[in-house]
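User: Fold both of these, please.

Assistant: Here is the first one.
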Amino acid sequence: MKKSIFILPLAFSAALSLTSCHDNIFEMISQEVPLETYQIDGNISAMTAGGDSSQEYLFVTNGKLYRRDITAASGSDITSTDNSSSWNKNWERIFDPSTDSLTDASGNSYQPDKVIYVAADTSYLYMMTTTWTPSLTSYNVEGDRRLWVSSDWGDSFQELDLSSMYNSAFAGLIDKYTSSYYNQKPSVLALDLIFANNTDHNNADQRRAYIRMNYHYDSNTKSDSNAGYYPGQVYRLNGTSTPSAVSTNGAVTSSNTYINSTAVSCCYYNGADYFSPYYAFTANDDYIYFSKNNKYIYYADGWDDTNKCFTNGGTEVTTSYCSSTPGISIIYALGVCNDYLIAGTVSGAFQVALSTASVPASSTTSSKVNLTSIFTSTFQVNPIFVYNSSLSIYNTDIWAAAKIRGSISSSTHGVFDEVGLYAYYPGRSTWNADGTADETSEGN
């Protein structure tokens, strides 16, 4: 059974040193909340919203795939579910690789080992799966990535056959990787990842999903360590149709690395999708907010393709918010509300106030709820999804995941029993565990 946590995080300790106010200590103690037992646990590798304004879902994967109906989840409206007394237990597990099989493009039964990515648009859900193959080394080798699409939000899947896209640049991939040592298919390494622009409720009708594919080449020798890949390309996913190549970053025609081999995230801003090599990447109506895999938060209102940079007022973004909290060296995720940014970092989570013009403050603001006592400095926090960015951070539904820092076997950070999915529901007014109603797995 999960335990109640109360650890005074470094982020809050820093705030105390600035305020010298003992009331804050008692405020944090009063925020201690017993953790609920039911939770989707483990490493949440991806989170995505799907559907349009008439019907919305949220999906997460920890190797398995889960779905939650978030239609009309503004404020306490989400409490209209069957489990409104707890707000928890409203997720459902829709695909489990240990028990569920798929039918591949050839009509054969197929059993993946893990769901590694999930993305969605207004009409379709996509998941990327993988298998693992024993190798001659001490580590297993990833053996077979495949892409699947669902038109009924995960009740059924069909394989998206991308063989028509394989051209001479990576047909056959690398001989080195198809040897008996690796036992991998030529098409496997071409599928890098899938992601979505993850719009909130206000822009639900603008949801789009993408796949990044890299073109590999053959060095003609199995032993050539220089065998590698050409810079790849991002494609927009179009349901069961062939994906289409992306050639713009925002409203600007672009051929830069933000939309080829390095793109890992996307956000919708000012009528267009912008791509980034940074995981901490989000937007509202006023700005794009991002972190360059460091402790800084930047805000921009455009993209300059000539100089390959995000801009503010036509000038490259150079000013930013900087976290001075000890231990926070990387910001991994950002969520935006109308009054605060919520940042998930390598060492917990914090919030930064936004001005009426949506400009980030120069320092953090203590949360009025149990944000920092749930996401302590012992946990890495990402991804984050904010349902309605036009509402206050205290009046919209928010989901976030806590992870072990580093490998599970060697990490001294965090408690594995507490790793998993958490949610803030305004009607409950606290952060707490979030999961399924499955009693046998305690919500997993």
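And the second sequence with its predicted structure:
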Amino acid sequence: MNAKPLLLCLLLLVAVSSPSQAQNYRTAQAYLADFEKNERFISESLVAHSASLINGEKASRSQATLATIHNKLERINAIIISNDKGFGGDTTLRDTFLKMTQNMLVLLDDQTLQLEDYQAQRGLDLDEMATLFDTKTRNVINYYASMVDYTNAKRWFSKRNRLEHDRYFADRIAFEYNAHQSLIFFKLNVLDVKLWDLLLTTDDATVNKCVAFINKVCNESLAQIETYKKTNVDQSLNVANADLIAFLTSRNQTLIPAYKDYIQALSNLNNTEKAELDKPEPTQKLHLLEQQLTVTKNKFNESLAAAKQQTKALTDRWIQTQRQFLKGKI
């Protein structure tokens, strides 16, 4: 699967701003304006990056844009920490901005925005995947919480100083929604790739654990989906994830029994072969078990092939839904 939910999350970071140089401000308007000097650079970079993903450009270009944003943010923060003393003793805007950009740097450093690398995660065990999911979710939550804090600080700074200012991350809810929808999609795909690998083994205990994990993520995701149904936001990704969850749940109810029938038939045959090692010729029981193995194996392989095809169709549709959503945002 080659989805690129990264672009959704990247757009969530649009409209970051900061003072570009240290100075003593004569007016509150000048202080506030300096916080926005770098907003155009970051916004345009993120939009260009998201557009490149929509257009299917190489991931290396996307990563180069992220590196540029990261370096710029570090320079901005260094300047603020060294030189910004606030306005009239008020450092709330500075402090909340620093917290927000630091949380953004965490997103970049921990590769929280890297949501299309399903293949890279397949080597993790299920406990490691759980840790990965928790980290990505926490990073996104922290970023948006700090964005709210910064937005409130900006609003109150404007009110206290009687400034007209309406740039308060008006699209934050929509972008935050997209970030969480992308995380849902990422988690489901990572676990699904893991399940495909496990189904090629006879480790039914781990298969059961993986299916239980998928069900847990599905239930948690459905709760998020219900929450976003109550918000005034484009519901297309909500619907796409709900459809994917419904399919995975239904699919596993038929695929997993077929898998278990197959490995049980394989186990029965292996045990019987061991028990009949001293017999000169295969018994009728062994022949029957071989036939049973062939039947269950064919049924499982047919179920597996159909499931993969249907899963790919749904994930491809999700990707297109995401791209259409973003085209309306950039």
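Residues 1-8, 10-22 have pLDDT under 50 and may be disordered.
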